[in-house]
Amino acid sequence: MSLFFDHERDLAALGTASRLRTLAPRAGRDFASNDYLGLAGSPRLAAAISDALGRGIPIGSGGSRLLRGNHPEHQALEAEAAAFFGSEAALYLSSGYAANAMLFATLPQRGDLIVHDELVHASAHEGMRLSRANNRPAKHNDIAAFEDVIATWRREGGSGRPWIALESLYSMDGDQAPLAGFAELADRTGAILLIDEAHATGVFGAQGRGLSAALHARENIVSLHTCGKALGCEGALIAGPAVVTDFLVNRGRAFIFSTAPSPLMAAAVRESLRILQDEPERRERLQALIAQAKQLLVPAGARTTGSQILPLILGDDARTMRAAAALQARGFDVRGIRPPTVPTGTSRLRISLTLNVSSDDIAALAHALTGEDE
Fold it and tell me: For residue 208, how far is the Cα from the chain centroid?
């Protein structure tokens, strides 16, 4: 018997259920990536990296930020990011997953309660698994449900602080959270909002500052802005009060014990933030594609969201993967999303709009969807 018999059996079960994941090369027109503003291949980012190399900026950091890995490029990025997002401070980490997991594992304390939207990212669940605080789910985007969870916890003797966890723009459904209402709830209940802006940063808000931009003056908000989606780079920025970033530097294990991100990538992210301010036409072009997609793809079965993410829910796992394969064969890079990434029975095609496609590409995809053989 193989030493990895249990693993082989698990993989076989995934295959039987049409849930086995495999790596595939990128091919076809981009309806799958999160490179919403088309910045990943931007000449300005390439020039920023070239300039940084010319200035002697090293490729590797050489250690954690608390050892010798702290580079002036990291600190310059954090200062510029805090000013851009309107926060007192910012902290740069190597990935959105690590940053989000660290937030949940570190900030809520024993006796606190994390009330999280039932659809929050897997990274939030990983952090909650490591947290000293208790956690309870609440119905998606339902402010009253969140308030009921907090009230029930208080009646049961909960005396700590509530933390309200949500995404400003949900990665698989494409809908937005009612942030103003959640901010009012946080004020009423003494809660702190943890807002994951991963899919809104760069796309929504003044100059791409995210959907929480209008709330930046509030002390009870901590936001996460990933750099590997609309910003076209890598890493993540946590924005909030200085006490939060100071606490994470001292207690956040993913920060303390990780090699610092490349200083070159910090230089690239700085340039991305400048592009957001200098080139508003990128967001305008994306909004035009979103409007076109609403007209053409919604009649073909996609759900309207008002964002760059349009799910086409098919339900059955095998059917979803057949549909994705058929579109890929026709030159459209559309991926099938299955449980556990989405709830059981909601397998879907996740159609992502980026500046890597044109109006003609969207029209062609709509035609392929309406004429597709099942």
Answer: 14
